[in-house]
Amino acid sequence: MKQFFRSYYLTPRVYGGLGLLIAMFILAYVVPWLFYPAEILTYLFLVAIVGDSLVLFLNKKGITAERICAEKFSNGDENLVKLVLESRFNFPVQATVYDELPEQFQIRDHEFHTTLKPLEPIELSYNLRPVKRGSYQFGIINVLVASPAGLVRRRFQLGTERAIAVYPSFVQMRKYELLAISNQLKEFGVKKIRRIGNNMEFEQIKNYVSGDDYRKVNWKATARKGHLMVNQYQEEKSQQVYSVIDKGRVMQQPFEGLSLLDYSVNSSLAISNIALKKGDKAGIVTFQDKVNSMLPASNRNMQLNLILEHLYKQKTAYKESDFSRLYITLKRKVNQRALVLLYTNFESLSSMRRQLPSMRKIAQQHLLVCIFFENTEVDGLINTSANDIEDVYTKGIAEQLVFEKKQIVKELKSHGIHTILTPPKELSVNTINKYLELKSRGLI
Length: 444
Prior knowledge:
The protein has 444 residues and is α/β, with parallel strands linked by helices. It contains 12 helices and 21 strands. The strands form 6 sheets. The chain has a 6-stranded mixed beta sheet with strand order 18-17-14-19-20-21, sandwiched between helices. Residues 187-198 have low confidence and may be disordered.
């Protein structure tokens, strides 16, 4: 009985009808002959409600529902969720569907309105974009159904609760893998990259594709085939590529929902996958006030899965980052010269100069690339027009911040440290381009 009352809802039509009947009884004090029609209508209305209730509640298996989605969600990307519903009633019913979404999304108005016909499955779909890694708990599927009379609604609680793990963006990883292998990253609006493999050890002659170095055209083979052919040389392999992620408080700044830390985690997964595909060894280092974790560089079969699991659990304690601890760890545990991709963020020259001595020591032993972020919101302030004195000051400060970022790049380069200053959204593609460029120049 308790379950019955929890599932039983009267629709607005019932309350409207009751209001009309009450009005008729009130008027009956002035117009006595209205009393009997009002009484008859009341009984008929109650019979209609009871009949509608019986029609909905006598069928115990009225509705079935199932949620279909991936076991893992990709952080920062659109993830598809499907709801499959089927009606076991003998007549069409109006259904309102509420899927209990994980609390992390903070979505309060997620609902579907549809008509379910007898024994005809219907599919409802929607996308979710998580912005934090971790475990997301889906609840049950609530379906409110009403008969054509529309006087009573019955609630069905269907499906099961389910936990979904949100991992670093494996969608981006796959996308950039295909683009890097086909040399099509330039289609995303970035600079044209050099073709990998300037080593002089010959491998094969192949068809020319867009982006190949024209200096490698094999004119004899071109004359024989009737179209451009180029020489391909073997690339250097088994080089160590470490993605080093700063997890300090400077990396918690959000852009479009994702923190800089999550952008860095997504990029680290993408570049590690590319490095492994190119025959190099990929590894991960994370640090704050101390080095928190280290996954040694390797190119074994399970390395990408190990990297994915390693990145999934990374969090920050909002502490000040200690680059000297990072230098000591790399010196002790990475004996071979490696490409070190350091994901961090500097907002001022003074903050960079505090860490510069440690970065210079790392650059003496490894090929260091310092990756930090443009403040796109500040760029937006620069492009707005100034209408008063306050706007003038705001634009002036914004331009100063942008200029200081450029000064950081200039000073790092003067000390032999490669740099990438990038908008957060373009982090992965710019990092992959830098890796391919350094590899083509034979620096790693």
